[in-house]
Specification:
The complex is a heterodimer. By secondary structure, chain A is of the alpha/beta class. Chain A contains eight helices and seven strands; from the N terminus they run H-H-H-H-E-E-H-E-H-E-H-E-E-H-E. In chain B, the strands form two sheets. In chain B, strands 1-2 form a two-stranded antiparallel ribbon. A two-stranded antiparallel sheet of chain B has the order 3-4. The radius of gyration of chain B is 18 Å and the shape is globular. The chains are: A alpha/beta, B mainly alpha.
Chain lengths: ~260, ~200
Amino acid sequence: MPTAKLPPVTLPIDRARFARPPASPLVEATLDLVRETVRRRLAESGAAWGDFALRKADSLVTEQDMVAVDAAILASGHRYDWSAGISAAERPEAYRAAEGEAGQGSGFAHADAPSAEADEQGRALRGVGDNVVRHAHDIEGTALYVRSNDRVLDLLTNGVPAGSIAIIDDSGGTLTAPIIEQFAGIICAGGTVRSHLGILTREYNIPCVMNAKVAGIAEGDRVRIEASADARTTEDYQQGVERPARIWLMTGDAA
Amino acid sequence: MNARDLVLHAAAIKRHAPAPAIAALAGLPASQAKDELDALVASGRAISANGAYALTPLAGVALQARYGFHFAELREDAKFVAAYEGFERINVTLKQTITDWQTLDVGGMRIANDHSNKAHDEAVIDRLGGLHEKAEPILGALAAALPRLSYYGDKLLAALEAAEDGEHEWVSDVRRDSYHTVWFELHEELLRIMGREREE
């Protein structure tokens, strides 16, 4: 989003009164992103529309601008369909995976995540996080990464498999209220115990660790959260006191 | 915004909600919002699951790209921006207040509040009332610039009054338009208007 103070700019197409939205969501998203870019470049140029469109647009609207449009679409989790295999071969990150190749990719690999061999209970340390509230018992479940909107829509539609522990990037809102309550536990790489997600999980009484540093947990692994650990308090954050709840990969017979 | 964008916007803020709730936030008649939502589902802009609607990712991208056009004047409106910044300051206190509502300090440890300590609960609700008094001029300034936003002030006051009358679910219950639910939605609304990202 632009933050520069520029006068509001209207394009001629903004005043088209009877234009229906494009049939395809991808076309609509692309056009709106392009128009947003053109509005910004037009405002920056200070030129009249005619002069901008006929003389300046080719140099002021850059290749980099269009790369950013593509990046915004991919950042939403969208992947293009392809008609020739060469597309997916040359740019695998931008295209839908071929049948059978779709996966959730590799899990988190946080550089500061602690790690240890399995103890006598089969618990191999794979990370830590800030416990949002202390529970009576630790919680075990199956790791389920939620890192794209498509995944959220899939879970909304088909439900969350019983006993799943969500592993998510941030508390900003990938995980919406109606699916939060279907999880056995949540591991969130961002936020603090006072974040919105912390508030929600306390309401639902679902164990949750925030600000988590995790490495070496793959989709489908059996994981255990030390939900019985002390919660990290406001004072802890203010004074920089760490109060980690542990996250284990369950191995051997324990898995 | 036209009706289609109002519905897209309200659905984005609500995340996953039934048609009447989206209509109320959008400020549209329920039947009109339902028609728009059905058209959005038919054209791949939204999904409908368990009686509630959620936007598809590309519909969210397109909507976000139109905000700069829709809200250009508000982003330049000094009074509105000042009110928004006031909201962000109070938001820090709100999150702390809700956290204190949900937890108790027992022997130096934070545990879940079982709401058996009436004095603690009433003290927190008093603080929420004090916070709301600080928020009221801000809510007024926001609605003065964009009348649709009076939805939030009305909902917040209703939730606060219910909580003060002893119905404590109205503080932070996620399954209703509790004080925290509506506050969070207003925050989301303001971030979208301003073109800002949420800070943790």
